[in-house]
Amino acid sequence: MLAVAKSASHYERLGVAPHASHDEIRRAYRSLAQAHHPDANPEVAAAATMVEINAAWEVLGDPDRRREYDRAIGTTPEPARWVVVGREDGHEDGHEDGHEDEDPLAHLRDDPDAAPPRQRPADLLLFVPVVLLLATLATFAYSVMSVSAGLRTVAILMFPVTVASFLAAPLFMMLRSRRRD
């Protein structure tokens, strides 16, 4: 749990309201940091003020730490609730099933509407080695049952390819993730 200061809250230090967006908090931090930076204002009090401004930004700049801080001081900001009168489905509170949003601070995040990353077809690349292994084992088992030397040769030749795919697939996935970052 975060230690809560008994004097001014982080919101008061930055001069923003508890329901301020991340961009508003960032703008307030930058303007205060520019005004109170020890290089711009060499007074001793400016350095102490800068420490307080940086401490407030460390907490309010991170959505998870901000949520924890809001819980600690008892001021979890809620988004404005809207009411739809006369909806066709009979609900008046604006929610389909009457439940509130899961994350009450989603409106404070940089991109609250961002969907979780989709699984792309290329992500199925990790299943290729497993499918190759199953195909190799099935081919070998069938070749033993049917006493077919040709199928047994194919199964034995498929085995190194299968092992190589178990080594290569994670490497391809790592390269893809580095390219996305």
Question: What would you say this structure looks like, in words?
Answer:
- There is one protein chain.
- The longest helix has 32 residues, at 149-180.
- It contains six helices and no strands.
- α2 packs antiparallel against α3 (44-60) and α5 packs antiparallel against α6 (149-180).
- Residues 80-87 and 89-99 have low confidence and may be disordered.
- It has 181 residues and is an all-alpha fold.
- It has helices at 10-14, 22-36, 44-60, 63-73, 128-146, 149-180.
- 10% of the residues are buried.
- Among the domains are: 10-73, Helix Hairpins (Orthogonal Bundle); 121-180.
- The chain is 55% helix and 0% strand.
Q: Level of helix content?
A: 40-55%
CATH level-4 homologous superfamily of the domain at 10-73: DnaJ domain
Class inferred from helices and paired strands:
mainly alpha
CATH class descriptor of the domain at 10-73: Mainly Alpha
Rg value: 29 Å
The CATH level-2 architecture of the domain at 10-73 is identified as Orthogonal Bundle
The fraction of residues in strands falls at under 5%
The count of β-strands is 0
Question: What is the averaged pLDDT score?
Answer: 75
Using the coordinates shown, work out and report the CATH topology of the domain at 10-73. Helix Hairpins
Separate helix tally: 6
Main sheet specs: none
Element-level helix/strand string = HHHHHH
Low-confidence stretches: 80-87, 89-99
Dominant shape: rod-shaped
* Alpha-carbon distance between the two ends: 31 Å
